[in-house]
Structure formats: structure tokens, C-alpha cells
Amino acid sequence: MLKSLSAFSTLLIISCLANAQFVDKVTDPVDYVNPLMGSQSLGDLSNGNTYPSIALPWGMNFWTPQTGKMGDGWQYTYTAQKIRGFKQTHQPSPWMNDYGEFSIMPVNGLHFTEDSRASWFSHKTEIVKPYYYSVYLADDDITTEITPTERAARFRITFPRTDSAYVVIDAYNKGSYIKVIPGENKIVGYSTRNSEGVPSNFKNYFVIVFDKPFTSSHTWKDKELEDSVELKGEHVGAVVGFSSVVRGTVLNARVASSFISIEQAEQNLKEIGNDNFEQIADKGRAIWNKTLSRVSAEGGTIDQMRTFYSCLYRMLFFPLKLYEKDATGRIVHYSPFNGKVEDGYLFAGTGFWDTFRALYPFLNLVYPDINREMQAGLVNDYKEGGWLPEWSSPGYRDVMVGNNSASVVADAYLKGNRGYDIQTLYQALLHGANNAGPEGTGRVGVDYYNKLGYVPYNVGINENAARTLEYAFDDFSIYQLGKALGRPADELKLYASRAMNYKNLFDPEHKLMRGKNQDGSFESPFNPFKWGDAFTEGNSWHYTWGVFQDIQGLIDLMGGRKQFVSMLDSVFVMPPTFDDSYYGFPIHEIREMQIAGMGQYAHGNQPIQHMLYLYGYAGEPWKTQYWVRESMRKLYQATPDGYCGDEDNGQTSAWYVFSALGFYPVCPGTDQYVLGAPLFKKLTLHLDNGKQFVISAPNNSRTNLYVEKAVLNGQVWDKNWIAPSTIRQGGEIQFTMGATPNKARGTEPSDYPYSFSTDKSNPLNVK
Ligand code: CA
């Protein structure tokens, strides 16, 4: 009996383990999110460069525990030991840094400076959910909990027995204001700290209301306590006391902010209404579950589920809502361009250089409703500032290259999004495409580009080859949108011809893109492994593939499919050699390529992220299947070191999420996604139009990673692409997966994805 029971137990355990390997159905996807994914990062090695965002999707402000010092972009690092405060943040990345930030920190004892108030903490006492954060501050014996709404939050602070219970408010340096209103248990103030991109009169106003009267109150300036209730200066704050509390005393605080005024911050505080802490947390949990549930995954390992939903979480923040609702319910925003309060939507905190690639295409597929507001916000950017942003943080920031707002605008409209002023946006694209604007808007080097067909290497314009390649793709985006809007034939032909400008930089000797001088000669000497210089945060081997609109044209330039595939293969075969002389040190993106063990493949940065999908343009889709599954497995984990480089406002996560679906938007602005290999046994898209699209792969597994067969809505599907418009109509694609490549599927030229030079409607092809 004992013996047989023991055998039975062993069997049971084995069978449980086998079952435990796969999660059948996810009902509460928020439980799979780890907001700490990517937070173990440093300036010289990024594992994501993220911080835990305690916020609602696209909320106007986020909350994060703060371990770094004031002004440090690395505001929360996983390896830190002390928390200095709980910070309201709008930071898109440590490189862009924050604006309008302030913090709240409960303490036991009257210590308020950022070093003296810092407390030891442990991840063992931390609960980190998108809608809820809790931590035990060990030095003070205080537990702090936070739960957010879109523009407000609730704090719940549990004190020990003490006669020195305080809460510190830090309005930060570079100009701040604080006022304590004891009669109302209230503190108001503003922070003007910013890292560019906002006008000089910019402020983030805040209001904090406690549920207990203050037994003492101070303001402070730098490191000195003051007795006044109101203070304005370079760096001010407040400390309010709740003395002589018994152990377990709970202090509640409601916090809200506004970019418009203190009155509007009070208005935004009404988001909390009469809800208590649990009710706000429950509502936040429900909103996250509902938003994440637009994609429901089944039949993946628990690790895959966690990675998938942690990535999806990371895609639902930027650009954030910069707009507010006034007392009459009107949508208004503080304009970072003219400093006025204007009507309508506005968003901020994204760089299109990163996010045009996959983040915006994903919004267009799964969350077109929020992108409709974002597009309306772009109309306001243009009306108020005269240009579309390329990097808004908010306002305009001269950071990266390209004029990729063209892709962001074109893809939304071409994927069927409507309900905003597309005519104005199209005019904005034409304006940006033919002028160099301030702060990286429009096109640097536009006169050269329009005259010569490229931005020369030797005219003092940095990263010129990258600019040329991106402008050519942007011109394709304008062409596609112009065609949909019925623009004149000569205008369409102009942008169609500019879309082919990538050819001007192709060096047949190296079969690579190379900087070109004003006189038509190539840059010399030429080192294909040199980062930066003619390119942006990458080398020629990364940027050569940046011809999203015409891969067939690139194949032709390289001498045909065999040579093209051989060049793709070479990326993984070559050692991770690099020349960092342009930067003078190995920038973190270089280091991330070097340590990934994938040769020259630099997934930690954006320029090459679509490359794995290009094999399907040359009839060898099984190589795409192998490499995307390999990259998903190796380069992403729902752990603090779980990204292989900067996450970058949803883009690197969007690569994973799209890839897990089984396809990727190599060329936004076309009606094609390029097929890869799905990750789960089943995945259902619950689309905003009420339709469902199912991606099933019942025999999917770690080893069954190749597509043996695909059936789309009942028909055998041998194409290496799938149409977003088909997906949006609802239906199903069924994959039969196998452990060995099917080298007969997807091999015919008729199976290859879209290329502009073989597009019969391309006006350049019409004789
Ligand atoms: Ca990057």
C-alpha cells in the first residue's frame, strides 16, 4: 500500500510538473506582469532601463519608488538598497530624464533631505503590480502603499508607535513652490524641474490631502527647515507631522497633479471620488485586466506568459496623456509650445525613431481607439508648434534622426483609423518633409536630400546615411498616405521617386550602405563595423537593412536572393567586432551587441530589429522562424535583467509581442505583416470592432518551432505575410508546427512580402 501510494505520488508529481509547464488560459493577465522587468540597468549596460510604472494605461502620471538621487535618470535600480521617496514621474527613459517630478516620503523622525530620509528596503517586502505598490521601509518601520488613477493616486501609510510620524514632500530643485494649508490637511505646490522640451513657464502643480490633521508643519529650503507655511525657491518642500501615533496607525493621502493650475489639480483629484484605497486598487486591477485581455494567450509556459504580459504592460504607457478634463468636462491641455491652455488632446513622451517600427503598428492593430486620440494630439502639436514632433518629451527634443512622424501618421490612417483631421496631418507631413525645423523636427539636410537624393557625408551633418535611409522610407509613407487621400499624380510621383533614394547609398563593392560625399564618391576609408558617424547608434551592417519599403530592391542591389541570404546569415556568423571611435567609448548599445553572443546582430537597439523577418523576402522563411524563436527565448525574460538593451517606450516590447503572435510589421504603411513563428499554442486578439482573430498552433513547443503548414480562414496559406486588414475582419490562422524546417513552403516569389519596386501600382513602374 505504502509502496503503491508512493509510486502513485511520484506519477502525480510528474504529471503535475508536465501540466505546470503550460498555462492553459489566462483570466487575469495582470497577475503575469512583472513591472520590475528591465529595472536592473546601468548607464553602461542596459537590461531595459525601465522603472516600475505604477499607473493606469497611458495615465498622465506614473508613480515609482525612487532609489536614485534627485535628477538621476536611473530613478529606480533593482540593485539599490534604499528608497528616498515615492516619486510622481513622467520619464520616458533615463536618457531623456524627467519633468515636473516631485516625491512623497513618510519618515519616523524629522529627517527630510534625500540622504537622511532614505530607508533600507528589500524586494522580499515589495509587492509590485501595475495598479498597486507596497514596500516596507525598514529604517522607519513604515509600510507605504500606492494605488493610482490616470491623474491622481492614493497613498496608504502605516506607521509604527512613534511620537515622530512625518511625511516629507519634496518639490525638487530648479524652481519649486510649496504651501501648507493645515486647516484643510492639505499641501499644494508645483515643480518646474525639467530636462528640456517645455517652455520656461512650465509647471507641474500638485495637491495632496491627508485624512488626519497635522500636529506640526514645516516648509524647508535645500537643507534648512523653515517655519513659514509657504515657500518658493530653487528647491523647496514641506514636512508635516502626525505625532504620537500607536503602532499600526494608518494615514491616507490623496494626490493629484495638473500641468494647468492648482485648481485643475483639485479637479483631477476628483478622479478618486469617494473611493477608498481598496476600491481604487480594484478599479485599477480591472482596467489593467481589461486592457491586457485584448490579447489572450493560451498554452505557453508560465515564463512565456510572464514575459508576454510584462512586455504588453510596457507598451501601454507612452506617449502618455498630457491632456486633462476641466470642470465642465471639456478636454484641455497645457501647450508646451505656446504656454497656453488649449482645447483638445495632447500626448507626450515617445521618440518616433524607436516607436514607428512596431509600437504604433501594434496600437493600430489592437488599440486604435487610443491612437485616434494620439493622432488628434499630433494635429494639435502641429497647430500649436508648427511641426510634428519627432521626439516629444513633451515639446520638441533634438535627439534622434529621421522624419518618422510620417510613418506614425500614415500607418494609422492606412490601417483604417479615422475621426481626426487627416488633411491637416498630411499638410504637416509635406511641411516636415521639405523643411528643416527647430529641435530635430522636419529634416536636417533637406536641401541636399531633395537635390542630390541623399544627405552627404562630408557637409557637416552627422549620421547622414541613417538620415537618408529613414527619409526615403518616410517618403514612401507620405506616398502611401497621399495615394489614399487622392493627391495629385505629380506629387505622388515625387514621393515615389524619393522613396528609392536608398539606392544612392548602396556600395556594390561591400554590398552595404555607405556614406556618400557631396561629389558622389563614397566615404573613405570605410569600416562597416564603425558605429555612429554615417549611421545612428549602429553600423552599416545594422542600417543596410533599413529599406523597409523595398526589400526586393535591396535584394537586386546585392545581386539576387542567394547573395542577400548570405549577407543576412553573415550577421550572425561574424564576430561582434566594433569601432567605437565616433563615440570615444563603447556606448551601451555596442556592449549589448557584444555580449549577446549573436555576432553583429544588435537586437538591443532598434535599427536592426526587423532584420530577422527578411528571410521571407528571399524564399527562406524557416530561417526567420528559427531566429525569432531563438531571440524570444534568449533575449527576453520577465526578470529585472530581462531585456537585452533599452526597452524604449514600448518598441522593444512590441517586437516580442508581435513576434509571439507570429508576425511583424516590417513595413508600416502597407497592408502586410511578415510571418515568423508563433510562440503560444493559441492566441486570440479581441479587437475593438468586436471581431476576434485566433492564431492557433496546437503542437507548438520549444522544439516544434518551424512552420510546417499554415491555414488562413480555411485555405492553405503559403505566403510569407498576412494582411492586417484580414486580421481586422476576424477569423483564424492555424499553424502546424514542426521540429524541422519545411523548405518547400513560402519559397515562390509569389509568396514574398511587399516591395515597392515590384508594386504594379508604383508610378515609377508605369511606362
Ligand atoms: Ca534604443
Q: What can you tell me about this protein's structure?
A:
β22 (331-334) and β23 form a beta hairpin. The protein has two domains: 52-292, Beta-galactosidase, Chain A, domain 5 (Distorted Sandwich); 295-332 and 345-716 and 753-758, Glycosyl hydrolase family fold, CATH 1.20.1610.10. With 767 residues, it is of the alpha+beta class. It is globular, with a radius of gyration of 27 Å. Calcium ion is lined by residues 354, 605-606, 646, 648.
Give the N-to-C terminal Cα separation: 87 Å
Helix amount? 25-40%
**CATH level-3 fold name of the largest domain:** Glycosyl hydrolase family fold
CATH class of the largest domain: Mainly Alpha
What compounds sit in this structure?
calcium ion
Give the helix tally. 19
Computed over alpha carbons, the radius of gyration is 27 Å
Give the biggest beta sheet. Answer: 9 strands, antiparallel
Shape: globular
Strand order of the largest sheet: 6-7-8-9-18-13-12-11-16
